[in-house]
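Sequence only, no structure available. Ideas?
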Amino acid sequence: MSDEKNVTKPDLSPAAKRALEEAAERRAEQELKEQELESQRTGEKGGPREERVRYGDWEKAGRAVDF
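Reply:
I predicted one. Tokens follow.
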């Protein structure tokens, strides 16, 4: 059995480090694109709208109405 606590990770080459950084940048760019597409599709800015059950015309003094 090997003792996993004492296993050292090998140092990454500069090319591998650069590839990991580029991949992280691509993931961040893809996430921004997905958020932009979602806001275009739903017409919402800054995230999804609050649920009407909790806020707005379906609640009065903490009690749900219109059901």
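Helices lie at 14-42.
Hope that gets you unstuck.
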